[in-house]
Design goal:
alpha+beta; Beta-Lactamase; five-stranded antiparallel beta sheet; 15 helices; 12 strands; 42% helix
Length: 372
């Protein structure tokens, strides 16, 4: 059970998408939730039996440095390489019987010296024959991965896959000498980076149009800070930014919804902390890298994209659309002319398919093009 005063695993996953250093925190949280004591992300190329660790914890660094290249080719998962597609969850016992595994060179040379056994893996990225498995490992003697652990990874797989997709795209952008602005411009929403004093460091084109002083819109920019023209909405927004910046409390993600003109639906806003260690932001330049503390995403939910990517039924899509419009479940059921229990059943299936468990997370998924 996650504690209320710590980030949820979904918050850690969202943060890791934008900040690669956050993946180690994701590994540690997932390990704690699944009874594991070690975990790692690797890039693996089965056709050459080669790979490289991206980040890990719970493994002996000296052991990894000395023998990783030797034992990786013996990994039983290479036997099922065609099945190692994005979102695939597999436990070691699915591939090789426990008694056989314990007699293998891989176990006796790699896992046993570290007091480890019984890994469970979810593939979170794949491009042609190269894939990235996220692996969690139980202590030797603890038995195979539990059904609860497998179910948790299956539920989170869509979020993990998208987060790694974002990480990869950001790294490719930096590697090709394009700045992060190019990536933020491609988002299907407004994106604004702010510093600790809530001043705007960067805004993509969509955000600039929203903040245009000459436009009689919902927002304006005063002394470098975003202000919502509606006083009540502005108080909500400033509170969300303060929470993301950790002013007086732990920094965390906030979600809010602002009504636009009648008939235009609502704007959804997600305010995300940017950790001080977020070296991925260095592609914006040294100054922005040292000052970026908060990312604000503003947009309208893309229900059609969500429905297409996650295979929502027409009924589920209608419920998702009602939720995106800011309706609660009871109001959504009334609007759609169905029983509340039917709407709840649809929402439960949407949560299961998308790997979310709250309406705010679902709206955030639609807003920022998750799964694209």
């Amino acid at each position: 059970m996650e504690q209320k005063n710590t980030p949820t695993v979904l918050e850690l996953i969202h943060a890791a998408a934008l900040c690669p250093t956050g993946w180690n925190s994701v590994l540690q949280r997932l390990a704690a939730l699944t009874g594991c004591v070690a975990g790692g992300l690797t890039v693996e190329r089965p056709e050459t039996r080669q790979g490289v660790p991206l980040t890990y914890f719970g493994f002996d660094p000296d052991h990894v440095a000395r023998v990783f290249d030797h034992y990786l080719p013996l990994n039983p998962l290479f036997r099922i390489e065609p099945r190692m597609q994005r979102g695939f969850v597999v436990a070691n016992g699915d591939v090789v019987a426990s008694d056989v595994f314990r007699r293998s060179e891989f176990f006796n040379g790699w896992a046993r010296p570290q007091g480890l056994c019984s890994p469970i893996t979810v593939v979170i990225h794949r491009k042609k024959s190269v894939y990235v498995p996220l692996t969690l490992v139980r202590p030797d003697g603890a038995g195979e991965a539990t059904d609860e652990g497998r179910a948790l990874l299956s539920r989170l797989a869509p979020q993990l896959v998208h987060a790694m997709d974002v990480t990869v795209r950001l790294q490719e952008a930096g590697g090709s000498r394009r700045d992060l602005g190019t990536m933020l411009e491609a988002l299907p929403c407004g994106a604004v980076l702010m510093d600790q004093d809530q001043r705007v460091l960067f805004a993509n084109g969509t955000a600039e149009r929203l903040l245009d002083r000459s436009a009689e819109g919902m927002f304006t920019c005063v002394s470098g800070r975003i202000v919502v023209r509606d006083a009540v909405a502005d108080r909500q927004f400033q509170t969300a930014v303060s929470v993301a910046l950790g002013v007086g409390t732990r920094a965390q993600i906030s979600h809010l919804s602002i009504q636009r003109s009648p008939g235009e639906g609502r704007l959804k806003i997600r305010v995300v902390p940017v950790p001080r260690s977020a070296d991925v932001w260095s592609v914006l330049g040294e100054e922005a890298s040292s000052r970026a503390r908060c990312l604000v995403l503003i947009g309208t939910p893309d229900v059609a994209r969500l429905a297409q990517h996650y295979g929502l039924t027409p009924g589920e899509t209608r419920v998702a659309s009602a939720i995106a419009d800011g309706q609660g479940l009871t109001a959504a059921a009334r609007t759609l002319g169905v029983a509340r229990s039917t709407a709840q059943s649809h929402l439960d299936k949407i949560f299961q398919k998308t790997g979310t468990n709250r309406q705010a997370e679902l709206v955030g998924l639609m807003q920022t093009g998750f799964g694209s």
